[in-house]
Amino acid sequence: MVDEPVLRFDAVSFQFDVSGPWLQRVVGREGRRTLRAVDDVSFALPEGTTLSLVGESGCGKSTVARLAVGLYRPDGGAIHFEGQPLDVARAQPALRRQMSMIFQDPIASLNPRWRVRSIIGEPIRLFGLAADASALRRRVDRLLEQVGLSIGDGDRFPHAFSGGQRQRISIARALASEPRLLVCDEPTSALDVSVQAQILNLMRDLQRDLGLTYLFISHNLAVVRHMSDRVGVMYLGRIVEQGPASAIFATPRHPYTRLLLDAVPDPRGLRPSRDPVVGEVPDPVDPPGGCPFHPRCPLATDRCRMEKPAYTAVGAVQVACHAVAEGRGAIA
Amino acid sequence: MPVLSVRDLVVEFPNRRGVARAVDGVSFEIDPGEVLGLVGESGAGKSLTGAAIVGLLPPPGRIAGGAILLDGERIDALPPHRMRAIRGRRIGMIFQDPLTALNPLFTVGQQLIETMRAHLPLSHRQARERAIAWLAEVGIAAPSMRVDAYPNAFSGGMRQRVAIALALCAEPRLVIADEPTTALDVSIQAQIVALLRRLARERGTAILLITHDMGVIAETADRVAVMYAGRIVEIGSTRAVIDSPSHPYADGLMASIPSLDRPVDRLRQIDGAMPRLDAIPAGCAFHPRCPSAFDRCRVERPELRDVGPTRSACWLGQGHG
User: Fold this and answer.
1) Which residue of B has its CA nearest to A283?
2) I need a surface site. Which of A25, A269, B137, B222 has the fewest CB within 10 A?
3) Chain A residues with CB inside 8 Å of B261's CB?
């Protein structure tokens, strides 16, 4: 099928067991406690596009990233990669190599005892993508150049590089298995802004040249706006608003999206100053009933306190909000 | 008279191969009630400048030159016990991680009371009343109950509020805030920034706000100094530095920030990286990355000079550029 999305989540849920140790539970008469990190998340990611998930800490965006590459198995719902159930896809090396991941901290994700050349070459060897040693060498050289490093850099160790260059090494390694999908979990959050600009430009160039598909996880709304075709805003494990980036940034509908956008300082921004937002994200182990955002929401009613909102379509945007569905969510 | 005056500050780290200069000739002043932002990327020397002012340079770092004056009195060469008396009383500190400022074994009330009584002539009862008033002031709900809670009972944003109360409760003249909002979510950052700014205004406290986040600077600082490789390359009013930076590094830094309000197709990037301390280029330290560098930049180091609304350390527009 031509239009089959590269990655597809259908009502995916995932929870962590955060219970105390067995003895403590027995002695203290505590039950098991679970944290619903991802709750009923659905999206489709077409080839060659970028979907970003944005939200504050604890909203479940990184858990979605880990679910997408099979590091966690969902408790409910289904994940499809290239039209096949994720388990089935990951069991086949030819499909498994088509997904890679980039992490926030390039220092922690690079083996300090390996030369860069071995780090980048490992996926190529693992998936048998090079016929012999000289083909492997040529492939690694090309990857180094693709991410803006020099061929000589391949013979050095990760500690000899700056943070931005290390992230380039992680990107080269992620590209080594010739993936179609790159899952990027806060890839520039640990970098300085001038280096962040280099990495974001590189990622966009690579997407254009190689036709890559990105699932992009970030807490930085300006970065998300710069990178994305589609955006999902997450709050306490749920996508509260999802749609084309242009629509969401131009007319945010969900009160939480509006709150987030208002809170972001933009040094050269047109908004003179932001309104301080009230409250904080509640404890995800014990989330509020009904709409999880209701305690902080200026539009909350009794219905919001009782009933979890379903999605309402507003043009191309999906919004989970009673106020929007009832027509009370008009932008002031 | 400025609350804080830093003149030609030099911070050095001796190592096996010689001496690395982490801060090299930094000068600035902060007036009462003023917020000065100190920005720069990792390794620019902004946090070490703050640490030098409060006498908490990590060893083997040392102040190798210049002077630091608090209310006109030199504090850069004081013995440790005198410096300890100044910290807390006359200089408050706020850090990125509020847990470094809070002792987990004492209630927040005990910590506020102890800090105030160490520096101000208050009875225990008076100090406790003031502690409750401070918690209310920084936006903690039900302060008369929360005063007896331990730090672990507070969320990240609330802990940072308590840390701000702790830094301000002895009514210092100067507060040094080093990345106070970096560990917080955006919706809480705004609250903390607004709080800091209001308290500085109301009490005439001078604030040195050290951060890499230009957004936070834009809405908090009255003036901003941009650091690169241990030196201030541009200093001026926040609006002038952000809207019309004159130094090529400051200009590139502003342009490399993705904007929510004005998206661009491609971010402008500064190629390369900040030099290591042991390999700072001759002349202007920025010249290897500078798109406008010419011969003079490679040999002669520019000093800060007036260029319209800001002061900038750059040879451009000085006859050769």
Assistant:
1) B155
2) A25
3) 266, 268-271
> B288 pLDDT exceeds 60?
yes
DSSP annotation string for B35-101: EEEEE--TTSSHHHHHHHHTT-PPTT-EEEEEEEEETTEE-TT--HHHHHHHHHHTEEEE-SSGGGT
CA distances from A307 to A242, A261, A290, A293, A300 (A): 20, 26, 4, 12, 11
Q: Is A91 strand, coil or helix?
A: helix
Give the pLDDT confidence of B54-80 residue by residue, as tens digits: 999 999 999 999 999 999 999 999 999
Distances in whole angstroms, Cα of residue B231 to Cα of each of A86, A166, B238 = 53, 26, 18
Q: What is the pLDDT of residues A161-214, one digit of tens each?
A: 888 899 999 999 999 999 999 999 999 988 888 889 999 999 999 999 999 999
The two tokens of residue B249 are 């590094």
Q: Tally the domains of chain B.
A: 2
Same domain, B177 and B266: yes
Residue type, A330: A
Tell me, yes or no, whether B257 and B195 share the same domain: yes
Q: Which domains does chain A have, with CATH numbers?
A: 7-98+183-280 (3.40.50.300), 106-178 (no CATH)
B233 and B124, same structural domain?
Answer: no
**B56 to chain A, closest Cα gap in Å:** 25
Q: How far apart are CA B258 and CA B239, in angstroms?
A: 18
Q: Which domain holds residue B167?
A: 101-171
Residue B314 in any domain: the answer is no
- Closest among A229, A222, A164 to A198, alpha carbons compared: A164
Contact criterion met (CB below 8 Å) for B98 and B166 = no
Cα separation of B305 and B312, whole Å? Answer: 6
Torsion, Cα of A175, A176, A180, A181 (10° steps): -50
CB B91 within 8 A of CB B176: yes
What is the per-residue pLDDT for B88?
A: 85
Mark yes or no for CB contact A226/B190 under 8 Å.
no
- Which amino acid is located at B263 in the chain? P
Size of interface A-B (CB pairs under 8 A): 127
Shared domain for B83 and B218, answered yes or no, is: yes
Q: Are residues B78 and B211 in the same domain?
A: yes
Kindly list the residues of chain A whose beta carbon comes within 8 Å of any beta carbon in chain B: 56-57, 162-165, 192-198, 200-201, 204, 219-223, 225-226, 249, 259-261, 263-271, 273-277, 280-281
CATH number of the domain at B257, please: 3.40.50.300
Q: Which stretches in chain A have pLDDT values below 70? A: 1-2, 268-278, 329-332
Instruction: Pick the closest to residue B159 from B175, B181, B190, B126 (CA basis).
Output: B181
Contacts of residue A269, defined as CB under 8 A and 6 or more positions apart, other chains included, come to B218, B259, B260, B261
User: CA–CA distance from A171 to each of A109, A128, A161, A218 (Å)?
Assistant: 11, 19, 14, 17
- On whether both B221 and B136 belong to a single domain, the answer is no
In a domain, B162, yes or no: yes
Is the ipTM above a cut-off of 0.85?
A: no
For residue A223, give the chain B residue with the closest CA.
B258
Q: Is position B304 within any domain?
A: no
Beta carbons of B219 and A204 less than 8 Å apart: no
Q: Percent of chain A beyond pLDDT 90?
A: 70
Q: Measure CB to CB from residue A226 to each of B186, B258, B268 and give the nearest one.
A: B258
* Amino acid letter, residue B155: S
Assess whether B33 and B107 both reside in one domain. Answer: no
B187 contact A CB<8A: yes
Tell me whether residue B266 is in a domain.
yes
- In A, which residues are within 8 Å of B155 by CB distance? 280
**Min Cα–Cα distance to chain A from B268, Å:** 7
